[in-house]
Amino acid sequence: GKMQQIACGFALALTIFNPAAGAEEMVRGRKSLVLQNQTARLVIDLGGGSIGELRFQGSELNPLSWAHPGPGDVSLQGFGHFLCLDRWGPPSQAEAAQGMPYHGEAAHVPWQVVREPGLRDGAIEAQISATLPKAGLSVRRTIRLSVKAAVCAVREEVRNDNPLGRIYNMVQHP
Length: 174
Fold this sequence. Notes:
The chain is mainly β. It has helices spanning about 1-15, 95; strands at about 25, 30-35, 40-45, 50-55, 80-85, 110-120, 125-130, 135-145, 150-160, 170-174. A hairpin with a 5-residue loop joins strand 3 and strand 4 (about 50-55). About 30% of the residues are buried.
C-alpha cells in the first residue's frame, strides 16, 4: 500500500538523481568512466582518456565508434575522440627514439578519476586527469553531461610541470 509507494518513489528518486551509481566500470574489458542520464550515455576510457562512446539510451548507434581496441586489448591508445597533447602528428626521429608517441602522450598514458560523476550546477559532472612525463605537462579534464539531454561539454586545463616555459600543441582528434 502506502509504504510500498513511498519505497518505490524513493528508489526511483535515487535512480534519477544519483547518476554516479556505478560510474567507474569496465566497458568492453577496459577501465572506463561512465556518465549517463535518462537520455544519453557517455563513456571515457581511462586507458588513454578517449571519449569512446556518446549515444542515446536504448540505441547502439555510436558516432565515436571508430578504431576501438579489439577484445582483450587493454593497451593505452587513442580511439573515438581523443586529445593530442603536446603535439599533433609524428614526433621527430630523435623524439620517437626516446619513446614519444604519434600525436603526443595524452592518449598513451593512464588517466585517473579526480572527481566521480555527481550533480553539480544542474549537470552531471566528473573530473579526470593525466600526467605526461616526457612532455612535462599535466592535464585536467572536466566533463559535464546535461541532466536531461544528450549534450555534453568538456573543459581541459593544461599545466606545465617543467621549470621553464614551453610551446606545445593541443588538438581534439575526432
